[in-house]
Automatic annotation (TrEMBL):
<dbReference type="GO" id="GO:0030170">
    <property type="term" value="F:pyridoxal phosphate binding"/>
</dbReference>
<dbReference type="GO" id="GO:0000271">
    <property type="term" value="P:polysaccharide biosynthetic process"/>
</dbReference>
<feature type="active site" description="Proton acceptor">
    <location>
        <position position="179"/>
    </location>
</feature>
<dbReference type="InterPro" id="IPR015422">
    <property type="entry name" value="PyrdxlP-dep_Trfase_small"/>
</dbReference>
<comment type="similarity">
    <text>Belongs to the DegT/DnrJ/EryC1 family.</text>
</comment>
<dbReference type="GO" id="GO:0008483">
    <property type="term" value="F:transaminase activity"/>
</dbReference>
<dbReference type="InterPro" id="IPR015424">
    <property type="entry name" value="PyrdxlP-dep_Trfase"/>
</dbReference>
<dbReference type="InterPro" id="IPR000653">
    <property type="entry name" value="DegT/StrS_aminotransferase"/>
</dbReference>
<keyword id="KW-0663">Pyridoxal phosphate</keyword>
<dbReference type="Pfam" id="PF01041">
    <property type="entry name" value="DegT_DnrJ_EryC1"/>
</dbReference>
<protein>
    <submittedName>
        <fullName>dTDP-4-amino-4,6-dideoxygalactose transaminase</fullName>
    </submittedName>
</protein>
<feature type="modified residue" description="N6-(pyridoxal phosphate)lysine">
    <location>
        <position position="179"/>
    </location>
</feature>
<dbReference type="InterPro" id="IPR015421">
    <property type="entry name" value="PyrdxlP-dep_Trfase_major"/>
</dbReference>
Length: 372
């Protein structure tokens, strides 16, 4: 089965992990700081590593001070963690609809959803294309809400020449194997605001602090926990893999751009198919290649491609369709643009090691199905 996404591991990655395994530090050691410094060069802002993209979102909402009674506005066209991370802290999640072409959070829908209880606006860079951060930031500033960017798809992307880690108050990343580069499991949160970085570091380390103590320091062992946190630390072994992978991020981006452009060309004249939107103000790291299957044929095309050994995927089920949100009173029909997008979306295989020959097979098979 040809997967829709897959990691690319080379000898340098293996050597980096082996070296970490042979060192004195498997976790909480020097490779964590090294990887965070490497991330900052790409993200454009200081970064705090965590165990995965889901915990990155949870940590970001905690750093933003999200709590019971707050509202968090976000998109339904994402993985559930973008919403559940806020809900688990007691916030009410408000789903705003998406732009028809990019499936990114629609600033006009956000503006209509703002209330005096809005604590955070959380955008998602769907498929690697950055959201409209300039408009979203203005809405945040006018309402007093913090802006969170879920950049799980978009590390390596830029928006109006600016790296994604500089666009929001807090930006989260995921390093799952299907993402733009991998640590196996891992994530990070970036911020240009020092006070938020400080809160992130404490939260991911079970709330432990060694500065600004309430009580007298009794010795080198002394620490305090002024706020609850969780153990979300990313170990040195995985940070070593991440630093090695980052050295190839430019190569990964170029290959994904080449494959995306090749899909654009090879699929341009296929009837019943709509290709991904392009935005002139973004330089995306193409994480997904999301086409839209028209005329109600998405399920048929999905099943026939899978049967042919081509591992397409659907990204994503509208979050409020999940039973956990249905049980909270959310109902279908809330975000019609997102639901229309979901009904047609299909992600074709896209990853750095995808060969031209395998891509040709995807194209020829899809052409054959839509032409029948």
């Amino acid at each position: 089965m040809l997967p829709y996404g897959r990691q690319s591991i080379d000898d340098a990655d293996v050597e980096a992990v082996v070296a970490a395994l042979g060192s004195d530090w498997l976790t909480t050691g020097p490779r964590v700081a090294e990887f965070e410094a490497d991330l900052e060069k790409v993200a454009g802002a200081p970064c705090v590593t965590v165990t995965n993209g889901t915990t990155a979102l949870h940590a970001a909402y905690a750093a933003a001070g999200v709590t019971s009674g707050d509202e968090v506005i976000t998109t339904p066209m994402t993985f559930v963690a973008t919403a559940s991370g806020a809900a688990m802290l007691g916030a009410k999640v408000i789903f705003a609809d998406v732009e028809e072409d990019t499936a990114n959070l629609d600033p006009a829908a956000v503006e209509a959803a703002l209330t005096e209880r809005t604590k955070v606006i959380a955008a998602v860079d769907y498929a690697g294309v950055p959201a409209d951060y300039d408009r979203l930031r203005k809405l945040g500033e006018s309402s007093g809400a913090l802006l969170v960017g879920d950049a799980a798809h978009s590390i390596g992307s830029t928006y109006k020449g600016r790296p994604v880690g500089t666009l929001a108050d807090l930006t989260t990343f995921s390093f799952f194997p299907t993402k733009n580069f991998t640590t196996g499991e891992g994530g990070a949160v970036a911020s240009t605001r020092p006070e938020l970085i400080k809160r992130l570091k404490s939260f991911r380390t079970v709330g432990v602090v060694r500065e600004g103590l309430r009580h007298a320091d009794e010795g080198a062992w002394w620490y305090e926990v002024p706020e609850f946190g969780l153990n979300y630390r990313l170990p040195d072994v995985l940070c070593a893999l991440g630093s090695a992978q980052l050295r190839r991020l430019g190569e990964f981006k170029a290959r994904r751009a080449y494959l995306s452009a090749r899909y654009d060309e090879l699929l341009a004249d296929v009837p019943g198919l709509r290709l991904p939107a392009q935005r002139p103000d973004t330089d995306p790291m193409r994480h997904l290649y999301p086409v839209r299957i028209l005329d109600g044929r998405r399920r048929e095309v999905f099943d026939r491609l899978r049967a042919a050994g081509i591992g397409v995927q659907v990204n994503y089920i509208p979050v409020y369709w999940h039973p956990v949100f249905e049980d909270l009173g959310y109902r279908r029909g809330m975000c019609p643009v997102a639901e229309a997008f979901y009904a047609e979306e299909l992600s074709l295989p896209l990853f750095a090691d995808l060969s031209d020959a395998d891509q040709d097979r995807v194209v020829e098979t899809l052409r054959g199905i839509l032409g029948s």
